Amino acid sequence: ENSKANYQMGMVLSGIGKYDKAIVFFQKALNKNQNDFRIYYSMALAYMSKKDIDKSKIYYDKVLEINPTHSSALNNLGNIFMAQDEYFKAEKYFLRAVNANKNNVNAYYNLGVICSILKKSQCAVENFSKVLKIDPKDAISHFLIGKEFISMGERNKGMDHIKKAITINPEKNEFIKFYETLEAQDQVIQK
Fold first, then answer.
1. Taking the model in full, what pTM does it have?
2. Fewer C-beta neighbours within 10 Å, C or N terminus of the chain?
């Protein structure tokens, strides 16, 4: 059996949500080629999709043994630790991810979220700004950076970002409600 054919079949099965079958094919591919980090990465993703976090971690670690600067694996491990409320561990993985790939928008976003959770507003602003430099139409990053600016006392900057978020995604009720609450507060203050 051919490692490449097994890997490709695993990818097809994974793509249609047949993760158990995909894992069988990925394992067959690994039996023939134990040094291909892409197979380990695909295996980790399949286990993540099945919500088997422990096995997923094992395969992400294998990816990093072979390719220590695999930015997506680093980011995904950061996500696992963030979901487990291990914020400082998550932050380390996200930092490694952006150091490995300066255009990893997901890692910058996740760093922004971690910094926000850890009440490090300036850090959050810096990372959401990096997201917006790469993807200026990221409504959620506009919203979150806006909230950070407001918490830092930079209300006008914050409101500008909240308005951009609403312009980009006018159906997002959370953005509109937050903006309306701030506007109502302004009305009370002005009276």
1. 0.89
2. C
